[in-house]
Amino acid sequence: MKRPRALRWMGLVFLLSIMLLAMTGCSENIIVLNPKGPIAEQQRDLMIISTLLCCIVIVPVLILTAVIIWRYRDKKGRKAAYTPEWEHSTKLELIWWGIPVLIILMLAIITVKATYDLEPSKPIASSEKPLTVQVTSLNWKWLFQYPEQGIASVNELKIPEDVPIRFEITADSPMNSFWIPQLGGQMYAMSGMAMTLYLQADEVGEYWGSGANFTGTDFAKMYFDVEATSKEEFDAWVEEVKTDSPKLTLEGYKQLREPSTSEVQSYSAFPEGLFEMTVTKYAASHNHGLSWKNTQNFEFEDQVTR
User: What PANTHER family has UniProt attached to this entry (predicted)?
Assistant: First the structure.
């Protein structure tokens, strides 16, 4: 009898040790817990606070479940009190109803506040002027247009550090979800709609971005590289693209939007109004945080679809 009990304790200690070792590096290995921008940091804190509040209920329940099973197990000489007529305790009722109600109220207050603070189209407070990047989800690739710089890229996103990025997101394909975990949460890319998402990278580095929605055969390959650089390096990259890369023509865009995977590409120019026309060719009345002039141009759509 002593040996099995000792083995059980050894097994328990071993499992706890493994869990502690795994948890020591979890924030580095789980990228959503290793934020590199102000939005992702707030979202990380919200997840941690919500988890800890829920643990106030969950952990005691799990512990009590194990204690009750052990104490009231079927065993000769069991000393646990047997009270089959017991049915009510005001003190216990207050505890197991009162504490969860308080936790739910706290979660509700925190969630409502965070919902307004983290509204995707809300600009990030900064002394720097936001950089606009127009994002188009294609099967199975991402097209990034920089309207102020006049360049575009496929599956490669470069941004300067400490500068708010104003993403305008749409789709010329089935609905997808634009996601850079270390910078912020997901935003759906939908045809006929343009969504606004503000993110920012606080430090130079390389991050992972992807499509987080099932879109068919090669959806698993629909990821892109995100590189946050210094402002000088970003400007140098823009000049390099303008000098060394070909232009994206209407015919080139027509080929690009065909279902296929793609390597990283860059373009020194793209057709004027390409993003706006991609949105309005499906529906001209839906946008989120955007306002355009002259968005109706069906001649452009005729040229692309012929």
Answer: CYTOCHROME BO(3) UBIQUINOL OXIDASE SUBUNIT 2 (PTHR22888:SF18), CYTOCHROME C OXIDASE, SUBUNIT II (PTHR22888)
